[in-house]
Amino acid sequence: MNLVYYVLRRVAISIPILLIGSFALYLMVAGAGDPLAELRSQPNVSPAAIAATAHELGLDKGLLARYWDWLISFIQGDWGISIAQGNAMAPVLPKVMSAFGVTFKLVIGAEILALVIGIAVGVLAAVKQYSIIDYIATTLAFLLFSMPIFCIAIVLKEYAIEINGWVRDLGLTDWLGNPWLKTASPENLKSDGFGDFLIKYVGAYLLPTLALMAISFAAYSRFQRAAMLETLNMDYVRTARAKGLSSSRVIFRHAFRNALIPVTTLFSVNFATVLTGAIITERVFNWNGMGTVLVEAVNKNDPNVMMGWLVLVAIAVIVANLIADLLYGILDPRIRVG
């Protein structure tokens, strides 16, 4: 019951934060430019048509009235209409949610890989401190820290071109790249068979997932190493060793669990970083995810799409922080969420 109360309390606290944030975002989006600038530049469009379009988008009202109308409609599930497809009006909600589904698959896959590999490498580097393994892990982490995400994505894309060339030399179809996206969908699992589906799925998601994973792996491995080194020097760990417990039992039963708490905190902060990194990664690999939607919305000055994108990302970050807070109580029973 305490857990339910805690979750409800955190959600209640998040609501005013979202309201204040959405209003600040709306002010910035409204000041970004005229959504009808492209329409006004067309000589064959009459002033009456421009006025009708402005009325349909709510641009003929004051700023506060426009925000209030947007907020009420957003809460009711109507995220407004988009003008990104030429001058044709299209609902924002299905467009943004479809793009979010694509990006969410990339982000979740990258975060799971980064967490598993980063934590494992961090623990190993801490246990083998100042060994060749520690030096290699440290060098790799600092190398990835210093490389921008677009640089990593471009390097991976260059390697993909070479690998696909080798595959074509064998008389096969290119393996790495987004042409496999549609054929690797779950709907084709029965027709393709699990083996063929898995090969296509890996080929479609491997490169962007690795690019996004690189953002998080370096941070997770370094934080895990530092936290593990600190935990291994705690009194209760030395006491466990003095009792004659095996090294593996001391590491995994006594030290590892508490050393995960700083990484859990990093996960909540890093989630937003990975989402923003996905924008660049998707553009490099020609994915039609959140990155494409945001770029189109900014280029077209499409306010409803930009607001839908920004608020959806804000909600995702709040949920990630809530999950991290709940994990604290699981990792350390001394932390109560009630």
Description:
- It is globular, with a radius of gyration of 24 Å.
- It has 338 residues and is mainly α.
- A two-stranded antiparallel ribbon has the order 1-2.
- It is 76% helix and 1% strand.
- The model has no long low-confidence stretch (mean pLDDT 80).
- The protein folds into 2 domains: 2-78, no CATH class; 94-300, MetI-like (MetI-like fold).
From the structure above, extract its key features.
338 residues, mainly alpha, MetI-like fold, 2 domains, 1% strand
Per-chain topology:
Blueprint: H1 2-30, H2 37-40, H3 47-57, H4 63-75, E1 81-82, E2 90-91, H5 92-127, H6 132-146, H7 149-169, H8 189-192, H9 194-232, H10 235-242, H11 247-284, H12 290-300, H13 303-331
Antiparallel strand pairs: 1-2
Helix pairs in contact: 1-13, 5-6, 5-9, 5-11, 5-12, 5-13, 6-9, 7-9, 7-11, 9-11, 10-11, 11-12, 11-13, 12-13
Q: Major beta sheet, specifics?
A: 2 strands, antiparallel
H-E string:
HHHHEEHHHHHHHHH
Taking the alpha carbons of the first and last residues, their distance comes to 8 Å
- Poorly predicted tracts of residues: none
Q: Could you say which overall geometry the principal axes of the C-alpha atoms support?
A: globular
Number of strands: 2
Radius of gyration, whole Å: 24 Å
**CATH class bucket of the largest domain:** Mainly Alpha
Walk across the major sheet and give the strand order.
1-2
Count of helices?
Answer: 13
Structural class computed from helices and strand pairing = mainly alpha
